[in-house]
Each structure stands twice: as structure tokens, then as C-alpha cells.
């Protein structure tokens, strides 16, 4: 946890060094945002449909999530972090701010390897990782949240334990079966064939599986609604 002096210094660094010089592009809400320029000293960790996530070379344990202009979700994510509080399987929000139209969060940085990347690299995923994530999602439900969009790229393994990377959609109330579907694949495919001696799986194979899953899932949703 950061003390008040450390947090004040980080806020100044973020607002003066990152946000004052950051150029984010928001072309289409259906596509990831575009980071046109990353200020010196900062590194882009990733970009999604709503925001970019950055870290500073002198503060590698901190991640700064900056929402692109016109993209919604900042207020909802603030509420989610407020309800989550402190839990070992989740990040923690140290500060939420608005600087000259840039809405941002200063977060504890989660370090590890996504389960998606573990399969690509041939890294064995212990059952404890799955159990940890299950427990973390139950914890979120007890706080009135609705785990949503929990899939292989949004959960990680760190030192043999499971952690949840992205909780920005946990206020959405519509059902989401992604995590249950991933667990079924883990139990029926991964455990029998890859858990003893994991081998690298080419990313193109996983992408094919992911696209096939989306097709089947969307088809089943259409079938239920017709």
C-alpha cells in the first residue's frame, strides 16, 4: 500500500509526465484504442476497447489505466474497485482522477502470465490456479458484483496462484458463461492431454478455437432468442 506522500508524488508524475503528453486515438468503439504517442519514461502494457494501460520505468509495481476520449466505463470501474477492496487475486485502485479530460486509475500492477499465454508457451497450469480464480469470483459476487468477460486473456498465473486481471465489466448483470466454458475445456481437454507434460500450442490454433467458440456461442444465443 502506498503512503500519502508516495501517492501524491505518483499523481503529479502521472498528470504532468504521462497525461499532459499522451495521445490516444478513439476511432471506433468496437475496435481497440490507438496509442499514437507514449511519453518518455512510460511503457504501454496493453490497449483495449476503452483504455490504455501504462507503467513507468521507476515505478514498475504501478499500472496507470487511461480511458480514451469518449469511451465510457471509468465510473463503473471505480465502483467495482471500491466494492472489491483488497484481495490477493485482484489489483487495487490507489487513486482515480480526471486531469484535463483524461480519466485515469492508478492501480497495483499485476504481474504474471495469462492462461492464454501459458498454453502458447507450454507452461503447466495447476488446478490450484483455477480454484483461486473460482474463489475470487465468488468473493466478487458476495460484494454485489457480476463477474463478466472472464476468459483466458483476462486471468493470470503468478507464482502458481490464480489472479483476475480485468474487472471493468463486473457491474454488467447479463449472464456470462466464459469462465464456466473455459473450466469445461480445462477439465475435459487440458487435464487429460496437457497437464502432465504441457507442450506449446501455436497461437493460430488457439485463435481458431477462440473463433469457433464465439461462433458456437453466438449461434446458441440466437437459437435461444428465436
Q: How is the topology of this model organized?
A:
Layout: H1 4-19, E1 23-25, E2 34-37, E3 42-47, E4 51-56, E5 59-67, H2 74-84, E6 93-99, E7 102-108, E8 113-114, H3 115-121, H4 127-142, E9 155-158, E10 161-164, H5 178-193, H6 203-225
Antiparallel strand pairs: 1-2, 3-4, 4-5, 5-7, 6-7, 8-9, 9-10
GO molecular function: ATP binding; protein kinase activity
Domain Protein kinase: 39-226
Protein name: Protein kinase domain-containing protein
Helix run count: 6
- Number of separate strands: 10
Specify the CATH homologous superfamily of the largest domain. Phosphorylase Kinase, domain 1
What's the N-to-C terminus distance? 51 Å
Describe the model:
The chain has six helices and ten strands; from the N terminus they run αβββββαβββααββαα. By secondary structure, it is of the alpha+beta class. The protein has two domains: 4-108, 2-Layer Sandwich (Phosphorylase Kinase, domain 1), CATH 3.30.200.20; 113-206, Transferase(Phosphotransferase), domain 1 (Orthogonal Bundle). β4 and β5 form a beta hairpin. The longest helix is centred in the last third of the chain and has 23 residues, at 203-225. It is globular and about 50 Å long. It starts with a helix and ends with a helix. The mean pLDDT is 90.
List keywords for this structure.
3-stranded antiparallel beta sheet, protein kinase activity, Prot_kinase_dom, 5-stranded antiparallel beta sheet, alpha+beta, Phosphorylase Kinase, domain 1, globular, 226 residues, 2 domains, Meiotic_Drive_Suppr_Kinase, Protein kinase domain-containing protein, Transferase(Phosphotransferase), domain 1, 6 helices
Amino acid at each position: 500500500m502506498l503512503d500519502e506522500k508516495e501517492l501524491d508524488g505518483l499523481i503529479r508524475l502521472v498528470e504532468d509526465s504521462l497525461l499532459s503528453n499522451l495521445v490516444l486515438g478513439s476511432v471506433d468503439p468496437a475496435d481497440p484504442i490507438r496509442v499514437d504517442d507514449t511519453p518518455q519514461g512510460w511503457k504501454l502494457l496493453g490497449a483495449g476497447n476503452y483504455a490504455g494501460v501504462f507503467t513507468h520505468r521507476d515505478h514498475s509495481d504501478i499500472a496507470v489505466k487511461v480511458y480514451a476520449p469518449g469511451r465510457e466505463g471509468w465510473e463503473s470501474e471505480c465502483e467495482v474497485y471500491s466494492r472489491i477492496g483488497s484481495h490477493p487475486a485482484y489489483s487495487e485502485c490507489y487513486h482515480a482522477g480526471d486531469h484535463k479530460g483524461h480519466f485515469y486509475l492508478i492501480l497495483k500492477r499485476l504481474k504474471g502470465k495469462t492462461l492464454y499465454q501459458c498454453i502458447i508457451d507450454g507452461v503447466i497450469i495447476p488446478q490450484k490456479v483455477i480454484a483461486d480464480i473460482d474463489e475470487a469470483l465468488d468473493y466478487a459476487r458476495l460484494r454485489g458484483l457480476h463477474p463478466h468477460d472472464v476468459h483466458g486473456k483476462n486471468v493470470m498465473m503468478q507464482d502458481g496462484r490464480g489472479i483476475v486481471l480485468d474487472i471493468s465489466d463486473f457491474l454488467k448483470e447479463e449472464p456470462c458463461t466464459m469462465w464456466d466454458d473455459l473450466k469445461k475445456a480445462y477439465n475435459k481437454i487440458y487435464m487429460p492431454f496437457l497437464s502432465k507434460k504441457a507442450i506449446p500450442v501455436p497461437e493460430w490454433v488457439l485463435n481458431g478455437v477462440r473463433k469457433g467458440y464465439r461462433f458456437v456461442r453466438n449461434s446458441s444465443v440466437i437459437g435461444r432468442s428465436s
